[in-house]
């Protein structure tokens, strides 16, 4: 059977060698975690490339999904906002053409 864990740690001063060892271990652990973090940072883009970008049939699958007959009608439909913008633009063009005609008539008119 294992001995019981004391409630309070024994309070004693660490020797110089123990303090140096603790500092060395702390630095090594920090360096190790920095290496692990760097490896994870490097592996994430590689995993994305492997599973998404380099997927063999990804482009053909996307095109196949895009050209489904039931989706094609929805994708090509004009939105309400775009129809309103087109209508407003046509009205503005009509008004500008009329203004252009009036300006050209005024230029051609002689006052005396």
UniProtKB/TrEMBL annotation:
GO terms under biological process: endocytosis; intracellular distribution of mitochondria; mitochondrial fission; peroxisome fission
Sequence ranges assigned to domain GED in this UniProt record: 22-111
GO CC, alphabetical: membrane; microtubule; mitochondrion
Superkingdom assignment: Eukaryota
InterPro entries with a match to the protein in the record: Dynamin, GED, GED_dom
GO MF terms held by the record: GTP binding; GTPase activity; microtubule binding
One Pfam family cited in the UniProt record for this chain: GED
Residues forming coiled coils: none
PROSITE patterns registered for this protein in UniProt: GED
UniProt-recorded name of the protein: GED domain-containing protein
Species assigned in the record: Heligmosomoides polygyrus
């Amino acid at each position: 059977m294992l001995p019981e864990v004391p409630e309070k740690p024994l309070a004693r001063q660490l020797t110089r060698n123990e303090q140096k060892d603790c500092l060395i271990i702390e630095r090594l652990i920090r360096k190790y975690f920095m290496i692990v973090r760097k490896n994870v940072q490097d592996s994430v883009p590689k995993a994305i490339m492997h599973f998404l970008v380099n997927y063999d049939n990804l482009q053909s699958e996307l095109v196949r999904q895009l050209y489904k007959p039931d989706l094609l009608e929805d994708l090509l439909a004009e939105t309400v906002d775009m129809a309103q913008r087109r209508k407003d633009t046509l009205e503005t063009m009509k008004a500008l053409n009329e203004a252009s005609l009036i300006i050209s008539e005024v230029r051609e008119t002689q006052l005396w």
